[in-house]
Structure formats: structure tokens, C-alpha cells
Design goal:
Elements lengths: L7 H4 L6 H14 L4 H9 L6 H16 L5 H16 L3 H10 L4 H13 L3 H12 L7 H13 L4 H10 L4 H6 L10
Helix pairs in contact: 2-4, 3-4, 5-7, 6-7, 8-10
């Protein structure tokens, strides 16, 4: 064996017992907020496959919920608030991010309804434009760039269209919006 290289057997992780897995989960939650699904994905790499590993994970998740270290509802509310206040993202973007993180659909719906009820989408879109320092587009290419940016940020086409109208963007550019490939790179 060459100097500094470990054998394949020593690189593979041994499954953790329940106490060590609990410590691993708590350390993981100490570094970053996580959903139940995210924590299970991490723990799955550290337990033996099958029912024994699943039972350990279930036990630890239940214990962490009981101790209030793990709560998807609180996670969704905090995540939504931070994305809304800091990034100025629209409802759709936050919804996609929460789905990707494994939050249940009912929790997402209730959280987003509460968070976005008080703040109209056009106002949030204006805040996003200020944050990103987007300017009135002068041609079709710039219009497409602004539209793609705002769609990625989670705003509806109706809101985007009304903002472009307020900017007095040419009618030809507004008509071209329906032809924009939203997945094209900027």
C-alpha cells in the first residue's frame, strides 16, 4: 500500500450504534437547520441497511421531535421568512425549495399562505428588483433577461408583465415575452 493512502476497507464507514447515531444527528442539526427528510438522508449513510437501520432512524427522529430539535413546521416558517426577507423570493420559488427539502405539502401550503398573505406579490417583486438592481430593459434581449430572473425568483407572469408595463417597455417586447425560452442561459 502506498504511503498516505488508505485501503478500501478502512475508507468504508462502519454503521453507527443508536447512541453514536443520535450524537451524529444532533451535531448535524447544530450545524444547520434540517428537515426530517434531510436528516434521514444523512443518517441513512451511517446505519446498516434494512429494518434495523430504519428502526434506529425512526427512534432518533421521534426523540429529536420530542426534544423539539426537529420540527418541519418551524423549519418551513423560518425558511420561508428568511427567503422572503433576505432574498425577496416569490411564493413559487420558496415552495419549490421546500418541496426539494422534503417538507410535506400541507405544511408548505399553510406556511406560504400565512407568510405571503400580508405582502402582495407586486410589492415583493419591486423589492426583488431593487435588491438585484434590475433596470428597465432597453431591448428584447434585456427584457428576456429580466423575465428569466424574475421567473427564477418565483414571480408569476402576471406580476412580471405588470412591472414591465409600468416600465413602459415597448409593446413588441411585451408580445415577445410569450416566446421567451425561460430555460435559456442569460
Amino acid at each position: 500500500m502506498a504511503f498516505g493512502k488508505k485501503s478500501r476497507a478502512s475508507q468504508e464507514r462502519q454503521p453507527l450504534d443508536e447512541a453514536a447515531l443520535y450524537d451524529y444527528a444532533v451535531r448535524s442539526l447544530g450545524r444547520k437547520m434540517r428537515t426530517v427528510a434531510e436528516l434521514r438522508r444523512l443518517m441513512r449513510l451511517r446505519v446498516e441497511p434494512g429494518e434495523t437501520g430504519a428502526a434506529k432512524m425512526d427512534s432518533i427522529v421521534a426523540r429529536l421531535k420530542e426534544q423539539r430539535y426537529l420540527n418541519d413546521t418551524r423549519y418551513a416558517a423560518d425558511f420561508t421568512r428568511l427567503r422572503q426577507e433576505n432574498e425577496k423570493f416569490g411564493r413559487r420559488r420558496v415552495q419549490q425549495d421546500l418541496v426539494q427539502r422534503g417538507v410535506h405539502g400541507d405544511i408548505i401550503g399553510k406556511t406560504l399562505d400565512a407568510a405571503y398573505a400580508e405582502l402582495p406579490e407586486p410589492e415583493l417583486a419591486r423589492r426583488y428588483i431593487e435588491r438585484k438592481r434590475l433596470r428597465k430593459p432597453t431591448d428584447d434581449k434585456e427584457t428576456a433577461r429580466v423575465v428569466r430572473s424574475m421567473v427564477r425568483a418565483g414571480f408569476s407572469m402576471g406580476t412580471i408583465f405588470s412591472i414591465l408595463k409600468n416600465w413602459n417597455v415597448e409593446a413588441e417586447s411585451l408580445a415577445a415575452i410569450s416566446e421567451i425560452d425561460l430555460d435559456a442561459p442569460e
